[in-house]
Amino acid sequence: MRDSSWDAKMNETERQDRRHLVHPFTDLNFMERSERTVIVRAKGNYVFDEAGTRYLDGLGGMWCSNIGHGRDEMASAVADQIGTLDYYSPFDDLTNPVMSQLGETLAAHAPGDLNRVIFTTGGSTAADSTIRMIHHYWTRLGQPGRRHILTRDHAYHGSTYLTASLSDISYCEGWLREEGIIHHLSAPYSYRVGVGLSEAEFCDFLIAEMKAKIEEIGPENIACFIGEPILGSGGVIVPPAGYHKRSFELCRSYGILYVSDEVVTAFGRLGHIFASDERFGIVPDVITCAKGLTSGYVPLGAAIFSDRIYDVLAGPGGRFNNGFTYSGHPVACRAALKNIEIIKRERLCERVRTLGPVFERRLAELSALPLVGEVRGSHFMMCVEYVADKQRRTLFDDDARIGKRIWRNCQKRGLLVRPLSHLNVLSPPLTLFEEEIHRIVDVLREAILETADDLTRERTRVA
Predict the structure, then answer these.
(1) Which site among 174, 184, 186, 230 is 20 to 30 Å from 150 CA-CA?
(2) What 8-state DSSP symbol labels residue 104?
């Protein structure tokens, strides 16, 4: 229990938070005993707490602050839209200029014939809507038995009931989940799953496993495969070379639709507006996106899908029973248009392609430190995995909260990173400067070394 002196230090924001709020994906019992960091302001690549302390935003809000914080031109665009058309229903034959313009803009940047757009409220609803749409597509084609979905361990596709079920099983730990039609394949996780295999051998293993699972279920029963180009919240897992093309071609050979979940990877994080084609050489049937679509300024998600799918949906009797009150919200669409304008005008994708390798090289230097098992990722999507024993790759007990400890030690040095169990994730704004890359690495190094020293003093074995 907290003592009275702790309560006396709390401001009204923290008291209100403790009385009423349930934070997402959080150990609520642990939160009862934890202090809050109250963020009150943000500008550029930094956020500020109530005491005025400045923090370099090493996690980009939540993978999403691509153009940086506090953009005056974004504020003006959003305010202007509110003054012009704050909201109106997108149902039936009603539309608005910014929703239509954003649809055309997304189609222009998406690969192949991905020319149709469903607007949603975020990434979870984009993935959820996609699965509903695909099931309806197969029903319209007279194949209602195609209900099953292939996904992967360590995936994250959202927090609706269905998308949480599509995600790694641990996200539903202790909660009910949909199981009958969802099948998890091995994560393309070289450090854990591919131990002892070359990159090519590991890729062969993953493709053979997928093929075997398809044949076990029966391809005539499978609706789609859904995968992130680089797995995000599951640990920034980069699949082996050739995996994307081979898994895509395997799905094509069996007539299985392929969904690329680019909620994290789109809008510059890997150096391209969309990574599926430009980076990995595939044109999926559907791309889902959110986060960097508006750089987090206003919530918005989208599913961009092929003309081939649309033509089936729009045939005789093509009633489409999916959507949201806030689909194509004009304020959110205006924010997205301004966001894309800034990304292109400031050449942020090119900036990431230039500075991303610098970020990767500098972070790789941390591999030699105690506690660090692997540094991995790509461009502005990176991760450090911590282990108690480097040779055996043994994880710390959950009670050690190793990622959280290092996060706290970073925070007191003015850097925010994301703690995920035994990991720290880095997904900074794309506006990051090279000197800020060096600062992130230097602070993270100090935080890791301090944590290692603390563990030694506590007599926690570190090999």
Answers:
(1) 174
(2) H
Say if residues 306 and 116 touch (Cβ distance below 8 Å).
yes
By C-alpha distance, which of 405, 362, 385, 386 is closest to 463? Answer: 386
User: Rg for the chain (alpha carbons), in Å?
Assistant: 22
**What confidence tens digit (pLDDT) does each residue in 22-36 have?**
888 888 888 887 888
Which of 324, 345, 366 delimits the end of a domain?
Answer: 345
Strands annotated E in 156-251:
182-185, 222-227
Which residues share a beta bridge with 119? 302
Whose tokens are 């005789």? That residue is 316
Domains identified in the chain, total number: 2
pLDDT at 454 over 70: yes
* Runs of H (alpha helix) within 261-306: 275-278
User: 154: how many CB neighbours lie within 10 A of its CB?
Assistant: 24
- 102 phi/psi in degrees, rounded to 5: -65, -40
CATH number of the CATH domain containing 429: 3.90.1150.10
Q: Does a structural domain hold residue 32? A: no
Tell if the pTM clears 0.90, that is, is over it.
Answer: yes
Residue 1 domain-assigned?
Answer: no
pLDDT value, residue 173:
79
Tokens of 363: 């972070």
Report the candidate in 398, 397, 415, 409 with the shortest Cα–Cα distance to residue 369.
409
One-letter amino acid of 79: A
> Does 221 map to a domain?
yes
